[in-house]
Amino acid sequence: MIDKFFDCQLILFDLDGTIYVGDKLIDGAAEAIDALRASGRKVCFLTNNSSKSKLQYLDKLNKMGLKISEYELYTSAQATYEYLGEHLAKKRVYLVSTDEIRADFEAAGTVFDDENPEVAVLAFDTTVTYSKLQTLCRFVAGGVFYIATHGDLNCPHPVSPMPDVGSFIELVYAATGRRPDIICGKPYRPAADGVTQKYGIAKDRVVMVGDRLYTDIRFGNNFGFCTALVLTGETNRDLLAKSSDKPDLVFDGVKELTAALLSKTDEGLSKKTRIN
Known about the structure:
With 276 residues, this protein is an alpha/beta fold. The protein has eleven helices and 15 strands. The strands form four sheets. The protein has a six-stranded parallel β-sheet with strand order 5-4-1-13-14-15, with helices on both faces. A five-stranded parallel β-sheet has the order 7-6-8-9-12. Strand 8 (119-122), helix 6 and strand 9 (145-148) form a beta-alpha-beta unit. The mean pLDDT is 93.
């Protein structure tokens, strides 16, 4: 797996907890991304957070100094509306989301129906209301096909973790007895299919970098990518030691990962970065 790390052509970066926390860029992240681009590698910011539209992410990341293009961005919302287009085209959809995400789904051709849908989709709605949740539960209990953009229980935040889609999945399950028929973000197949098709790079030339074991690292392990854990978000070494989801490598942050990768030699990897 070490050879996969040094020979990688595409590096997938989680965002929350990996590149930034809240509105604060993690130290050295922008310079590390620039260095990776300069080395000829492709980078993709692959996030499960489906509360922001593509344009919102581009605006946020560019203001932080990352200077990214839409080509370098892939989200769980994108994986979801691509899944709808491929497998459930023209099905009527009830969507729980922010207005900005709804606009992205609409632009992708999603047909909305808030009265008699055939599909219910749960995204990370930071404007959620009781009425929206009650309506979602009514449709799910009635048997419509049920999709979640991702399953993260919480979203990193400087003050305290925010309840994320995974928490609402548990709420809906408690009310209806049903879990999603499919989840599209990390660590599930729709996101893997979407990102590999987008870039056309073999899976053994892809590195998945993230801070969360049960999404980022499990995702990479599930689909044959090299996996690198960074310790700037949710996971610390105690959690790592107790988890069955093991990365190939672990770094203090993206800055240290990039320095090791660009060293082009095993000597660039200290003992503490090695897991296997």
